[in-house]
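TICKET: design request
STATUS: open
ATTACHED STRUCTURE:
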């Protein structure tokens, strides 16, 4: 035994030194029970014989649970002023450090003793106030710093904001998902965090307003916040527009965000965003739906269920393209004659082209299509005259317009060119070559055209040479008009009069 010792009852009347650095740097921010554990531990270090120096002994002496005692030691370990280890019997051992040595001795093994997040830990715990974080929760938070690379000040601001909204019992796993989203969104500075929180604050308050309008008195859930963010940031609804749409939820006994989301989705699809647009749409919706049913019937659809897509199409045709309802029905009839039942996508293509050409009323369309029918009959007469045996194409109509409207050649002159092209391999191309020559020569009458043809025949040395020449003609070399896909005809045939 040692040469000198205190008497067995000396410790009760002795003093336990506590470093002022502990009081100033650590104690003021620490939970009260954790301070009690630390101070009682120092006492045991100086006088180990004075009481049961174990976790259970600490718990009994301090009136705390053993788990609280263990958490306290782990807390002080995270502050870097002691070290906790486990013995072979799975009992914990605690080694106290000299705080001055930890803070100011450069030769001290700081990486093993002074925990690098000491200040951060204190600030984080102070945000949670009376709720004490567990070691596992701290480890989760450290992942945000080390794996997600979020700055400490950003994490503290994030935690403080969500605790202010959710309360101090907020699950750390919820914050873990939030931290992942913040890292994904690049919130890596205080300025970005402040701007992000300002947006979230607005979203939160708006969501509370919607819940209040629906008669729900509680804090918003994460799913409700996400829906509100979608309505505002993705679909571009204002809070006033959202609250106005809430009126539609009165049609159900239990209004909810899910039901409101369907209403806003329909309004989004039909392009109704402002309060005025929504009011006009809702007031006229029944009339619009009746007209859509008529369109569906005329287009050959048996079902009459009105979807938001149908509404969006119809509003576009009437509001944006200014098409008359009777004009839309006329397009339905044309599509049905051509292909049977017509989809709204097919109608959309047809009506877009009619609108682009100023055909906004049935009168406009009928006049145009009647003119087109006359033109088609003239083109088919040309086919018969030159021996062309195939269906008429949009390119044929474009050529005919060029001959008769651009070059101002009469239909009779075109028919004569068709006769002269009967022996050609590519008859329409050969006709275009003849008519182009007449146009350049300013030939406008039948007699002039016949004289030109006779001169052409006489210039040939013999009929045999003429036949040989015809065989060698490369019709692909004749002057032709280039056509693009956009010039394809889009109108339908054989419209009824009246």
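STATUS: resolved
RESOLUTION: sequence designed for all positions
ATTACHED SEQUENCE:
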């Amino acid at each position: 035994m040692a040469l000198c010792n205190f008497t067995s009852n000396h410790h009760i009347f002795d003093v336990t030194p506590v470093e002022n650095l502990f009081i100033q740097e650590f104690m003021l921010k620490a939970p009260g029970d954790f301070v009690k554990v630390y101070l009682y531990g120092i006492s045991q270090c100086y006088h180990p014989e004075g009481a049961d120096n174990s976790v259970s002994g600490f718990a009994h002496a301090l009136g705390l649970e053993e788990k609280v005692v263990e958490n306290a030691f782990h807390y002080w370990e995270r502050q870097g002023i002691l070290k906790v280890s486990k013995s072979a019997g799975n009992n914990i051992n605690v080694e106290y450090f000299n705080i001055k040595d930890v803070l100011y001795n450069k030769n001290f093994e700081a990486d093993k003793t002074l925990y690098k997040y000491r200040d951060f830990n204190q600030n984080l715990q102070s945000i949670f106030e009376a709720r004490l974080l567990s070691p596992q929760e701290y480890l989760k938070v450290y992942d945000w710093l080390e794996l997600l690379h979020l700055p400490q000040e950003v994490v503290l601001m994030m935690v403080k904001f969500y605790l202010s909204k959710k309360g101090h019992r907020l699950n750390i796993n919820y914050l873990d998902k939030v931290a992942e989203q913040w890292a994904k969104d690049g919130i890596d500075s205080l300025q970005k965090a402040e701007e992000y929180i300002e947006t979230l604050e607005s979203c939160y308050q708006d969501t509370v307003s919607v819940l209040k309008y629906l008669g729900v008195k509680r804090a918003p859930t994460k799913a409700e916040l996400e829906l509100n963010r979608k309505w505002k940031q993705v679909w571009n609804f204002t809070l006033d527009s959202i609250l106005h749409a809430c009126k539609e939820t009165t049609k159900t006994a239990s209004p909810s965000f899910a039901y409101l989301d369907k209403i806003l989705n329909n309004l989004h699809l039909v392009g109704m965003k402002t309060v005025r647009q929504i009011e006009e749409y809702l007031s006229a919706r029944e009339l619009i739906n009746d007209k859509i049913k008529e369109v569906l019937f005329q287009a050959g659809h048996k079902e009459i269920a009105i979807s938001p897509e149908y509404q969006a199409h119809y509003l576009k045709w009437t509001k944006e393209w200014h098409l008359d309802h009777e004009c839309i029905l006329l397009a339905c009839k044309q599509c049905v004659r051509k292909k049977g039942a017509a989809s709204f996508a097919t109608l959309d293509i047809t009506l877009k082209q009619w609108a682009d050409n100023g055909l906004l009323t049935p009168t406009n369309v009928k006049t145009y299509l009647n003119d087109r029918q006359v033109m088609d009959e003239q083109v088919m007469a040309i086919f018969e005259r030159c021996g062309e045996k195939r269906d008429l194409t949009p390119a044929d109509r474009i050529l005919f317009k060029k001959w008769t409207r651009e070059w101002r050649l009469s239909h009779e002159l075109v028919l004569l060119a068709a006769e002269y092209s009967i022996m050609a391999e590519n008859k329409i191309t050969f006709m275009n070559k003849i008519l182009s020559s007449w146009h350049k020569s300013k030939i406008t009458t039948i007699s002039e055209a016949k004289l030109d043809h006779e001169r052409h025949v006489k210039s040939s040395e013999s009929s045999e040479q003429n036949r040989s020449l015809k065989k060698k003609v490369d019709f692909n070399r004749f002057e032709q008009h280039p056509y693009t896909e956009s010039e394809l005809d889009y109108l339908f045939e054989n419209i009824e009069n009246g």
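CLOSING REMARK: The chain has four domains: 13-116, 119-188, 283-360, 373-485. Residues 110-114, 472-498 have pLDDT under 50 and may be disordered.
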